[in-house]
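Hi everyone, sorry if this is the wrong subforum. Our group has a chain we'd like a structural model of before ordering constructs, and none of us has done structure prediction before. Sequence below.
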Amino acid sequence: MKVLWQHIACCAVLLGIGAVPAAASGSATGVLTYEQSEDRANFIAQVRKARQGDAEAQWQVGMTYAGLGDYARAVPMLLSSASAGHARAANLLGWLHEDGRGTEKSIEQARHWYRIAADQGEADAMSALGRLLLQGKQPEAHEAARQLFERSARLGDADGQYFLGWMLAAPIGGQRDDATAFGWFIKAANQGHVGGQLAAATHLLAGRGVSMDKKAAGDWLIRAAETQDPVAHYLLGQLRLGAEEADLERVHSSFRVAAVAGHREAQFALATLLAKSPVDADKKEAAGWFAKAHEAGHIAAANRLGELYRDGAGVPLQLDKARSIFQQAAEQSDADAMYNLAEMQNDGHGGERDTGKALEWYTRAAMRGHKRAVGVVDSLLSSSVKLSDLGLKGFWQ
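Answer:
Right subforum, don't worry. Here is the predicted structure as tokens:
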């Protein structure tokens, strides 16, 4: 990695991508230091060798361009190197095709180059190829992917270890093996693989394949959260919230990092905590987070947002808007929203009174186990009032 960034530094100078700061250059005049001059000379030499057909030099130059984000220059160098049998160049070329960097996006071409690199023993190419094979629905493709992950994992590749653990913990057919999966997750986690750290933490929290250990789970979540991973921060917030003496400031902090990153469950969790505050500013912020979660498709957040508009908490009182939001959430099968919508329809709040529709939503909420809706329906059914020619609407007329 040090060699890579040395190449990138000198290439930046050559391409004029960025000036070297005086503090970094060691001179107020901006004159290159001896080490930088040597790096520049080395890069020029590599370029010359690459143009003469040296596959290793082509790989080095292509990798440098890719590190700078100059993918258009990287691709031709890597293509020449990979075509000459350079495994690492083929692997990087596969990634560029997969992401469409410097070339057209082509999963077929990505698989082609990953396979060439994998056949030459490149562990990360094996895991990348396996990951692409998993996109297919054929059982044989999944088995081929598992074999690639196992080869990669045994060679020490963190992605391979993580994906192998994932296939063992959630197999498509076959026997689930949580204990072995956890072992691979730990190996990946110890290499700094965030997915492995999260998987290890969730297994420790649930006691899957390992004894339940919230302390160890928390340690892995903290390490994963150091990368600013939103899932890690959300899970860490949930773990801290469930502690015997929850530190709400730290809980808020964890949820907020994930919420700002767009994690809708964290947005809902943060909003729920803020909505309980007696401070108006907190309730107003809660409404904002409920709205963001609602926009991201969180149904329960939609219902909570509707309640705030119905009650005028943190937002202006808007009964018609509340009723509209409840309608949206109810149509997406949220039982709380069904009950709230029924209440507003029965009372004629936010729109016309419609007792027939209200009873329909009370009933649907009751069938989903909503206790208050069950109470309303049971009360009506046990009433001395009998059904009339008006049908169920007769309960209110």
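For your construct planning: The radius of gyration is 30 Å. Residues 318-397 form a domain with the Serine Threonine Protein Phosphatase 5, Tetratricopeptide repeat fold (CATH 1.25.40.10).
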